[in-house]
Amino acid sequence: MTTHRAIRKAFHAIEQNEGVGARVRRSIGGRQLPELSPFLMLDHFSSTSLNGFPDHPHRGQETITYLINGEVDHEDFAGNKGTIKTGGLQFMTAGRGIMHSEMPRPNADGSPNIGMQLWVDLPQSLKKCEPRYRDLQPSEIPFINIDDDRVHVKIISGKSHGVDSVKELAYTPVWFLDVEIKPGGRIVQDLPRGWNAFAYTLSGETRFGVGKSGRTVGEYHCVVFEQGGDTVTAEVNADTKQNGHFILVAGLPLDQKVVRYGPFVMNTEAEIEQAMMDFRTYSNGFERARGWESEIGKGAF
């Protein structure tokens, strides 16, 4: 017998300036939701700037970057490089240490580069794993249409209505679905019991939940669900003119302390101090950072 998940909270992600020419809506990692284990941060970014994020380090977390519009190049000190294109993703595991660069390309029509970046914590036992990348091109993402084709689901990670995603994208167990619902459409999506889960709305109006406890939200809202239950329900009113579009994400909570300092995410203050020392002295995972400079980051300021 399935049990519907109730809504714990829902709030609007406020847009703010970030760097030069960028606007960011930070839902997870902000004052309204500092963290939601294993999730550390969710940024919905829009940028016309080509400055991007030149050479910088990470340790102790994974990042999932989903590009909604545009193209972004990436490169790291291990020789990995590639381009994320519209509808594609990059799964990056920082592990014991990585130095990389993320730089947007100009769009021919002058439109901004738009996407989502989700920071996911690593279990303590994997904090010192070797760094790695996984790129996922749009053509590699399986999908399914349900409810008489009124609901379209891209299964980026996880499972939806019998369709499995591409495997081994991240170490931390995470489901990541892109859902678009036409007016009159409805989806009841299974989620692993006990996992934390949220939806982030990209456009339109969507009603989450069932009965009187349900809630209709517009674009740029983060809807956090209770852990109890194993399904999430979402629907769009038949009288609505615009499709509802959102990502639905769930992850296995980690029973561990989180200590953060900029791009480093560890479990103790001592480990953060060690990460800073290792980066400064090019040791314990950062050896390849010595003298390294990305090609795509050259000329950035």
Q: Judging by the overall fold, what is the CATH architecture?
A: Sandwich
Structural class designation: mainly beta
The topology string of helices and strands comes to EEEEEEEEEEEEEEEEEEEEEEEEEEH
Largest sheet: 7 strands, antiparallel
β-strand amount: over 45%
Low-pLDDT windows of residues? none
Helix percent reads under 10%
Keywords: Iron, Metal-binding
InterPro entries: Pirin (IPR012093), Pirin_C_dom (IPR008778), Pirin_N_dom (IPR003829), RmlC-like_jellyroll (IPR014710), RmlC_Cupin_sf (IPR011051)
Protein name: Related to pirin
GO molecular function: metal ion binding
Characterization of this structure:
This protein has 301 residues and is mainly beta. The protein has a single domain (7-251), classed as Jelly Rolls (Sandwich). The chain is built from 1 helix and 26 strands. It has one helix at residues 269-281, and strands at residues 7-12, 15-18, 22-26, 39-47, 53-58, 61-69, 71-76, 81-85, 89-93, 98-104, 113-121, 132-136, 143-146, 151-157, 159-160, 163-164, 174-181, 186-190, 196-203, 206-208, 215-217, 221-225, 231-235, 244-251, 259-261, 264-266. The chain has a 7-stranded antiparallel sheet, with no helix packed on it. A 7-stranded antiparallel sheet has the order 2-3-4-11-6-9-12, with no helix packed on it. Strands 5-10-7-8 form a 4-stranded antiparallel sheet, with no helix packed on it. The longest helix has 13 residues, at 269-281.
Task: Name the features.
301 residues, mainly beta, Jelly Rolls, seven-stranded antiparallel β-sheet, 1 helix, 26 strands, 4% helix, globular
